[in-house]
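RETRY 2/3 - previous attempt timed out on the joint model. Re-submitting the same 759-residue input unchanged.
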Amino acid sequence: MFVHDTLLNRLKRGCATMAYPAGPAPALPERHGGALRVEAAKCQADCAACVAVCPTEAVTRPPDRRVALDLGRCLFCAECVKACPTGAITQTGDHRLAVRRREDLVLGEAGNEQLRLAGVLDEKLRRLFRRSLKLRQVSAGGCNACEADTNVLGTIGWDLGRFGIQFVASPRHADGLLITGPVSKNMELALQKTYAAVPEPRIVIAVGACAIAGGPFVGHPQVHNGAGVLLPVDLFIPGCPPHPLTILDGLIRLLGRLEESGRKTG
Amino acid sequence: MNRTTPFALLTNGTALPWADVPEWPLPEFLRHVGAELDRGERLNSLFGVPEGGALRLVAVLAFDAGNTLVVGRSRPFSGSFPSLTATHSQAHLFEREIWEQHGAVPENHPWLKAVRKDHGAGPAVGDFFRVDGREIHEVAVGPVHAGIIEPGHFRFQCAGEEVLHLEIALGFQHRGIEEALAGGPHRATIYQMETVAGDTTIAHATAYASTLEALAGTEAPLRAQWLRAIALELERLANHTGDLGALAGDVAFLPTASACGKIRGDFLNLTAMLCGNRFGRGLVRPGGGPHDGGTERLGKLRERLETSLAEVQQAAVWLWDAASVRTRFEHTGHLHRKQATEIGLVGPAARACGLVRDVRFDHPAGWFRFAQVPVSVWPDGDVFARARVRWLEIQRSGEFLREQLDAAPDGETRSPLPPLAPDTLAVALVEGWRGEVCHAALTGADGRLRRYKITDPSFHNWTGLALALRGQAISDFPLCNKSFNLSYCGFDL
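RETRY 2/3 succeeded.
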């Protein structure tokens, strides 16, 4: 009988939810690589090996300028890491990738070798959303990978509900939008109507390379190059797709819940 | 094959010169296609190839019993063409797509409207089929849905609770993938192929890689083919497990729903062991991929696979054991075998109608030429059958992985891809977890891609969902929808 089985199984297994953020973060897959770091100072003169291999023109090197890597456009394929002869572009293995401002994703210059991680919402919004953030998810040309790895945060291992974060079935119930996909032109109206239906104050979170800058479809006439073209974005979470841990880090970082957990564990 | 056909034969994952594809005047071409469909053959793809100012039609058909594909083409024509749809439902969406992409009107098409085009205010704005009557009411759902789901619009015609008709309008996810392929492959192309449908990364990337390899007259190294098969079955395991959990969730059976949500992630993590990405990005490349398993890593993968398979076994036993689940699954969303045949249904949805139809079995390519997976079939055509087929496939994919992980071929996983042959047509089918993924590519005189046609299984199967809803209570829509779990972006391209 499944009734006895499930109860016994539940007792035996105990709590399946990870200890993070009070405990250590789960490990990223070994070959994942995590965030990138760019030291443009290491670049050879006239070398553009990384520019030539990047599928989305995330790496650029205008004449007489240094290499710049835009992690918002990046698909994390690491072709540039392999192509670089001087080790100027490296993988850090860090799962933390979320930023508040678009320009904080551009790496290269001295002092900006790494991305500038997101800070907490301003005090008024933080107090409003810290213990209860309801989001409406809009997929606008997303391929169902960012969607899937957002959805997974609702499963027992991640249990997003314990932070008071929940995906709701109506924009009227929401405090903000979580957008995936490059924003296809065919979704433009639906996205704008959904945004308009969310009561203020509201926030917008762009998840994945597509929603930040168009991803692999950047420049296609059928898409806008990301949510920022149409709406003010409060949090950018890069990746193709971002690992669930990266998305979770971004969400609780924004709410200031990460520092709280840190304090508790000393 | 022990009968004659005017079409040119083509094995899955091979190419032939464009000049060798038989060509007929348009009426004769359509007659030949119709005749093969009348014999019970399947339409994999029907698409246009612009030629000067005119248009050619190209048909790819599967002779499943003969284990072969066939291709044929029309002479260039302009203007309209007589529609096949009225007599052959399989052509329905293909003809609408040809009209949308090339402007050629299929005359007497019973329901000619856009497939994914924007008409200024989004694709849902258009004429829907309407049932009239005092007791009839219409329900409109979407494009944005109540959950973390892709967008699409559903228009129900209901009498009380009962759905008389459902029309599904898609196109919201259109990203212009096929158009961007002209003149390619480009640097971003493989990344776009991996995201045609992001949950089907391995199947689409494999179909693309096989197509390019066929055009280049080469094959990926055996070990790369083996790795693609391993990743394809891991993709199936993850998605089928997720679907069982979602189906359980939709009938409020939480033990299986909770367990499968977690186990699905564990399967995705096995793919991530191979390439670092949970969806298999970077694993499949034309000519073979950069990643190799490595003995130690594969050993660990094998161990973790056993744990997850044991867990999913347990979660599935709970599901089948619960009478409350069976009463909700049985006789819900029924699709007749005859309907499934008529509309050219593919994948688990087709096998759940008793159709023995699986690319891995009928048209084996790559590693599946050496290692077979039994076809999982259930006869009833309802939600129960679609759940049951998924469970059978989970077990058989698990068995396949157990055997194959112990039988890895040695050697390289990567070889350089030679230049593509000019004026050549190649076709590759892959049995993705939703069903048949079909890629067809034609090169021009310069050896660049001239036309590239992608047919996701969802292109065939959305019609199946619409039919399955007829006569159902509208409250069963989520359950029926989940039992098909089709791709929006794979359809919209």
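The beta strands of chain A are 36-38, 59-60, 68-70, 89-91, 106-107, 133-139, 165-167, 176-180, 203-207, 235-237. Closing ticket.
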